[in-house]
Amino acid sequence: MAQNNGWGGRFVVEDMAPEDIVTPEDFTDEQVMIGAAARAFLEGEIRPRDAEIEALDYKLTVELMRKAGELGLLGADVPEAYGGLGLDKVSSTLLAETLAEASSFALSVGAHVGIGTLPIVFFGTPEQKAKYLPDLAAGTKIAAYCLTEPSSGSDALGAKTKARLNAEGTHYVLNGSKLYITNSGFADVFIVYAKVNGDHFTAFIVERGLPGFSIGPEEHKMGIKGSSTCPIFFDDTPVPVENVLGEVGKGHLIAFNILNIGRFKLAAACVGGAKETVGLAAKYANGRKQFGRPIASFPLIGAKLADMNIAAFVTESMVYRTAGWIDETLKNAEAEGGGAASEAGARAAKAISEYALECSINKVFATEALDYAADEAVQIHGGYGYIKEYKVERIYRDSRINRIFEGTNEINRMLIPGTLMKKALKGELPLLRKARALQAELLQPMPLPSFDEPLSKETYRIAQAKRTFLAVGGLAVQKYGLALEQQQEVLVLLADMMIQTFAMESASLRTRKMLRKAGADPAAATRARNAVEMTVVFVQEAMERVERYAKTALAAVETGDALQTQLAVLKKLMRAPLDDTIMLKRSIAARVIRSQQYTL
Description:
Residues 144-236 form the Acyl-CoA oxidase/dehydrogenase middle domain. The protein has helices spanning 29-46, 50-54, 58-70, 89-99, 104-116, 118-123, 126-138, 251-287, 299-336, 341-353, 356-381, 391-399, 409-425, 431-442, 456-480, 488-518, 522-557, 560-574, 581-595; strands at 143-146, 162-165, 171-182, 189-196, 200-207, 213-215, 229-240, 244-245, 289-290, 293-294. By secondary structure, the protein is an alpha+beta fold. Strands 1, 2, 3, 4, 5, 6, 7 and 8 form an eight-stranded mixed β-sheet that branches. A two-stranded antiparallel ribbon has the order 9-10. Helix 1 packs parallel to helix 4 (89-99), helix 11 (356-381) packs antiparallel against helix 13 and helix 15 runs antiparallel to helix 16. It is globular, with a radius of gyration of 24 Å.
């Protein structure tokens, strides 16, 4: 992959080459083996115990976590020096995707290896890493992440839990509570955020069993019933000063950057969930007969399966593109080397924050794609989809929390344009310059180019989507200035335009890369043609959404003749020949129905 360090947010104003991204087709033999190991563990250890896990059997979950640790499935992100495998982020992404079918157990693993362990990986001192990481990688200790409180959810910095240094200077004494803590029923190590002297937001490593530290009762949840979710309480709990994680008053750097990684890993899990849902729906549609034939033979059912498959393909393309970027940025940060642990943590924080915007985009798109797939799978199952005997009923309930986890989708949508503007104002993106230059250009004639090459039309339309975002965003900045952050409806429309653009471009770049690499390999050429069909459908339908978002936003920032002028410009930007998506979806559906699984 080409050097793209610092590409965060640049997809809005610059184009990339297909060779500059990582795709599932680039998996190494080692990565394939890692995925196969996770699949074998899932089939051999998890599926046979599924009902017991779902009944919230603490002992069994802990036992299975230990087995996963023995197989190395919990140590992908932990450096080898501390008992882990030290794998790249593409590999750990594949692990998260594969284990997603483990339902509640996948959540227990995800919380442990992600937001539970990574704060120590990225921000721990050498002593903290040596003390905790080997056990966390082996599964002999389990981690939990404690940020949310009864009065602070999305507003994480509004936390009320306090910490004060004792007179001897040996311990911080914690008082307060945390809410909705995954793994809390059986975790050993807790990453806890509290305000030192009620003011300085700080992270602590807190061990189970400390005086004054107690665990509340299990919450009775709509879904993810096999995962532990409890409140936790601190009543004069003494935490050794050496268990401060990072620096006092710098807990926000840890919290927000770990949330970025958490959002990304959640998106990876949604890829696995969406693929599983496609397979369940296709198998049911092939087996269920109505009016004397399988319901899979009816075009409307086929269209649903095609749309579900397309959503999974696009999400997968986005997630691995982002994984490649994060990998490269973290490697560059590590290569800088040297300095104290705090400096290494600062480098890691900067590297992770580079793609904060893309992590939010992945989280929003992936969680909504899985929700869509789950809903359609239940619809395909009809009344049976409402019965617990069928897994789609559980997937439907389980998937709903994903739009709330790791920052609600509303908060993430607000973060997307906000983060972009911050990068622009710091001079990291030529956003405002590009937007100003575009204004005069848009009033000129826009003849359509010829579309002779595969996906040339889609590449052109993606470029037009970027121009549309710049045009609408530029007008919004002109009208509202700094007050734009108060116009939440407009910000969300801009965010949705960015999400659709990133999704289109990710699918297109992946498919173009597949076309270039296919060569004389008939199987690879067939997969590439299949990817072309899905990309063509998605881009055409995504552009319709972009146009709708743009119209709504323009009506908010312009009126009268100025609005009509801008709408005329938008119409020019949206012009392109249309494809017969009905027939394309029939072709896509036929492959899904034949294979009875997510297919490419």
